[in-house]
Amino acid sequence: MKNSLLFALFFSLFCGFSQAQITSVGLIGSAAPFGWDADTNMVQDMDSSHLWTLSVTLTDGAVKFRADDSWDVNWGAADFPFGTGTQDGPDIPVFAGDYNIEFNSNTGAYYIEIVSPIGLIGAGAPFGWDRDVNMAPDTAGTPNPNLFFVTLDLTNDNVKFRQDDDWVINWGGSDWPTGIGTQDGPDITVPKGGNYYITLDTSSGEYNFVENVSFTTVGIIGDATAGGWDTPTEMIQDAGDGNVWKLSTSLGDGGLQFSGNNGEIVWGSSDFPTGTAEVGGDTIPIPAGRWQIELNTKSGAFSFVEIAIYETVGIVGDATPLVSWDIDVDMVRSTNDSSQWTLQIEMSDGEAKFRANDNWDVNWGGSDFPSGTATQGAFVNIPITAGEYLVSFNSLSGVYDFKELILFDTIGIVGTATPNASWDLDHYMDNDPGDPNLWSIASFAVTDHNGMDDGGLKFRANSGWDNNWGAVDWPSGMGTQDGPNIVTVAGTYGVTFNSATGEYAFGDPLTSTKDLLKPSQIAAYPNPASEVLNIDFAEVQVSGTLTFNVYDMRGQLLVTQELPAAPTVKMDISSLPIGNYTLQIRGENMMVGKRFTIIKK
Model's pTM, two decimal places? Predict the structure, then answer.
């Protein structure tokens, strides 16, 4: 039997469930026929009561296994198409297709095998030369009936492709990682074990093995970069897609390559400004300028978009407080991204546009509200509905958003790390009488996150989840709607939170919560920095001695400096290595946090 082979491989892992307790095993989930409402029961093997099988059609989504139509005993894992489920494990991701599923309720081992005529077999594959691992047919976009794919862990050994679990039709080749497979060709040698995305085109025999590497860092190296060929200039991982990395930076004439995990993998290409980078590829030719760089580590797709640097970007139109198409209301440039601009503004019914440098040479318009993508030079104005807004605009992409500011009755801190140790009971913050968006607590006890799925805390409004803020940063950061739980470190803190921007900070207990300064009034530059970080207090009143604390992304305190207040304070950061950091500033009437990045020239 096919399934006896699979489960022999995983028999060493035992979940500890007595078979006397289990009378049925079913498949349940968003991808299953009955969703999360009811199980699709599996068939118990007549000879081995712990083995279960099912032939079923699934949709894009996730599934789990469970016993006796109850969540008391259930199995899940993050692996596909096979893995070992554990009690209360994560949902198993699947994509649409017809499947033959095998499950072992003794060990939790499963194989969600797609029905397909094409498979991969060999000593380097999961089942050796005894059994094929089926490859999925291409169904994305315009389907290619000859293209098949699978993602697998391979060992340093040989593999081949074949049809219908038989050697009558098979493909082999001597090239790696890409080649043309031929009938009865040589075994394909996998030179390095790892997780691979594998494709085969049966019409041409073309095959491709792309290693899926988990990257902790991705950067650029080369004589066009600040760090040369020896020190990567780090890129920033996209919050929505872990395969995408971005960077805005100045480059000189020369060339560069992408570097993953400090040189473990290097990509290159001869194309510019867009192309597909290949492992070990050429040096990308770069003209001098300031560029927005993006790389997808899974596909290799990259792009360089030149960034125009504007002295100012403003909002102009009859919907602004100035009721004028001649005078701009200037926006505030982000310290992290020179193309990102924000402004808190009260607007009336009417129209508006964005423009650069207080003239019409460069302007952006759009037809959508409250959000959209503006087009440079468009002969269309943005229709505005009266209200108070936090406006964001990206002068590179044209993306804009008018987020209406809502005044909340209460802001609370909730979570297992709070004194209430509950996600239902809020610890309420004090509202600043001079700013309805600024909230604080003078002294607040926090417990450790402890790595729990439900650990940490969040901010929320009016004791409900319609408006809540979370983030990955500690002790300061920018919370976003439905963001992740804030990972905490035990201690007693003063806390500030801005409900208009989501900015928060945990620091030393406050002596007063009156007249706290807004974080947006303080700028930190240049960003990225190298030796010195300038902190600009030109828009605020500061006096006395200020405390500057620098934390890494795990919340560990690395540097503490006390410096006298001044319009611009220069902070020495030359001792810090390349990386991303949080700067927390403490003073008589402030506690704010700022993100910054360090590169080395």
Answer: 0.46
